[in-house]
Protein: Hotdog family 3-hydroxylacyl-ACP dehydratase
Organism: Marinirhabdus gelatinilytica
Amino acid sequence: MLMVTRLLAIDETTVHTEFDVTDDCVFVKNNLLAEAGLIENAAQACTAIVGRSFFEKDDLTGESNELIGYLSAIKKIEIFDLPKTGATITTKATLNSRLDTGTLTICSMQCSTFNNDQLIVACTLNFLIHEV
């Protein structure tokens, strides 16, 4: 399931994405994107920062490597509102820390999600990214 519609900007420490909330999304119930969908959106946006370092620069299809990302901890999360279907939410994440151990990377990210410039999610997430 893809929870990022557009990648607006990315570098070594930050990412900015958009996600179009549609009624066929598995996390939509009663025309609202559920909390689990907001967490998955944040996780997918966050892992793009570290995940991109495992791929060759000109690889736009993701064929130069295979990764598995694990959300290892939700250190903090606040969900203030659930977006309705038809909304486009924006997610911005920043890399707090990163430890590379060969084929495994451990990292922590700070993430915020907005709906029409209103903060709807603020979280700190930890990940394990494994090269297979």
Observations:
- The beta strands are 6-10, 14-20, 28-29, 32-33, 67-79, 88-100, 104-115, 118-131.
- The chain has a mean pLDDT of 92.
- The domain at 6-131 is CATH 3.10.129.10 (Thiol Ester Dehydrase; Chain A).
